Automatic annotation (TrEMBL):
Top enzyme class: transferase
Entry keywords, A to Z: Methyltransferase, S-adenosyl-L-methionine, Transferase
Protein name as catalogued: Chemotaxis protein methyltransferase
InterPro entries according to UniProt: Bact_Chemotaxis_MeTrfase, Chemotaxis_MeTrfase_CheR, CheR_C, CheR_MeTrfase, CheR_N, CheR_N_sf, SAM-dependent_MTases_sf
Keyword Methyltransferase found: yes
EC number(s) on file: 2.1.1.80
Record function comment: Methylation of the membrane-bound methyl-accepting chemotaxis proteins (MCP) to form gamma-glutamyl methyl ester residues in MCP.
PROSITE patterns: CHER (PS50123)
Reaction it catalyzes: L-glutamyl-[protein] + S-adenosyl-L-methionine = [protein]-L-glutamate 5-O-methyl ester + S-adenosyl-L-homocysteine
PANTHER family in UniProt: CHEMOTAXIS PROTEIN METHYLTRANSFERASE
Amino acid sequence: MTTATLAESHSIASSLGSLALGDNEFEFLRDFVYQYCGIVLGEQKRQLVQGRLLRRLRALGLKDFAGYCEILRRDPQGELGELASVISTNVTSFFREMHHYDLLVDELLPRWLEQKKKDGGRLRIWSAGCSTGEEPYALAMVLAEALERTGSKVDARILATDLSPQALEQARAATYALERMGGISEARRQRWFLRGEGAYEGYAQVHPRLRELVTIQPLNLLHDWPMRGPFDAIFCRNVVIYFDKPTKQRLFDRYAGLLEQGGYLFLGHSESMYGLSDSFDLVGRTVYRKRA
């Protein structure tokens, strides 16, 4: 597709202002999103999808939603990440649902590090649906602190994945506005962030030590997973709320297959595994342990 001229872009933007997402296009998008992302778009989401997609149409220089649907038909994978960014809400923060991190610090990390120091094993945590990176870097903070506290040389890593290319770009940049760092204690800000100056005044970047612990990769949870595991813990918080029951069941079964025996799965505060899997026991607030 050729890039629109400035005049053409202005004309397109003006014409898009009153454009409505028609029934045929919305039905196509609903089917497409469910097939490729596992996300159910109800009728109540139509206005939200319409408003967010208008920005994408402007970026692509398209005149209507039919043209966007045609792009999806021709090259589903090429536009999939951008569409996922449009329809999902990347709301996240550092140390969101602090009780999960308390469990890691007080119980799980000391136990895992001690055991792996004895048997030479690896420690692996997966942030599935990492969004813009706050979750995996918060995990890296408590992991790095546990490694320092125990003097452990354990091979420990965090995998962070997401479908949204925009979210992954921010996560890789690891640079955050200071107002987004409210969940971080002053001591941790001093220890794990580099304060920006000049053009970066008002921002801070994650310390290289933490960035070394985190591997960031694109991944569609509905497609093949290249990693073999096993993982000691998987964080999949505020992700499955978008999925229907069969998709959740398949996802939880796949998580169970990648977790260590006795490994932990962390869900979001409004999510539950009740009636969806026989592979886990509820052991805390939205914390599940894989059965032996």
